[in-house]
């Protein structure tokens, strides 16, 4: 069953779409089955993945309005290793329509039931607003990945985002969690960047991804070629960082799964009354046990806690295919 993650931050231009496209591509390279849902009427995730946003009759809009089967609105572009549910300006019309529909916030969740067994990961690229579209993503998702730019106004608006997540958790979707905080467009030369990064770690602790996405011109160029960075320039710092992020996500997942299994085994073998103690997260898991491509170790300069951001451009990209 797919893990469904909403990539959200109502702040505009923080790297939501860039993360959605490049993380899906990086996970696709590890042979995970991945679907990218474009839930933004701007359609940037669609074009950035190399899909013509006006060439497809069926889009996320039709899925939300239940005017087609979910599968019918999914395309499998030949040049990438993930599927895309495209979007375009029609989605604005869907948003207006949804306002008069009962259960409007559950439309995407209901629709994804038709396809969640077909994927390992489903990422939803949200618009820069806490509107009914983003709400649909939060109701459908297991977790929220929050991209944050480490700059002065970064934390502004974060409390309303967290409040919305909490409200959804407390009502329609108790399983919704903060999956991770991702530091994006990081400039290691900027003192303020380090300060904001440290504040994020203080507040969110281990929920801040160790991988930092650097500011990298190749990441900004890639969408105009309709290519994820792993294909546009695999050895760029941006590509290395997103491959590292995919590795970190897979490792986290494997550590959680093995902790769950250990707890389960312990529960089954423990005498009644004994409390099982799950193993802690291990960062040393390098081999996949699920038949998928193994995960390479993170390049040392793409991990950090604010004190060690991505700096070097001389690293080779990890081979994950
Ligand atoms: N790490 C990076 N380095 C350099 N440029 C980047 C990086 N990440 C994103 N950009 C550029 O910054 C701009 C905003 O990024 P992006 O579209 O991913 O943000 P967004 O949060 O999805 O925006 P919106 O809120 O409008 O949906 C884009 O032009 C993108 O190419
Ligand atoms: Mg976007």
Main sheet record: 7 strands, parallel
Residue windows where pLDDT falls under 50 for at least 5 positions: 274-291, 293-321
- The count of helical stretches stands at 11
Percentage of residues in DSSP E strands = 5-15%
How many structural domains are formed by the residues? 1
What small molecules does this complex bind? Answer: adenosine-5'-triphosphate, magnesium ion
CATH C-level class: Alpha Beta
Mean pLDDT: 86
Structural class: alpha/beta
CATH homologous superfamily grouping: P-loop containing nucleotide triphosphate hydrolases
The CATH topology corresponds to: Rossmann fold
Measured as a percent range, the helix fraction is 25-40%
Provide the spatial order of strands within the biggest beta sheet. 3-2-4-1-5-6-7
Distance between the termini: 22 Å
CATH architecture: 3-Layer(aba) Sandwich
Give the tally of β-strands: 7
The outline comes out as globular
Radius of gyration: 19 Å
Instruction: Give the H and E element order.
Output: EHEHHEHHEHEHEHEHHH
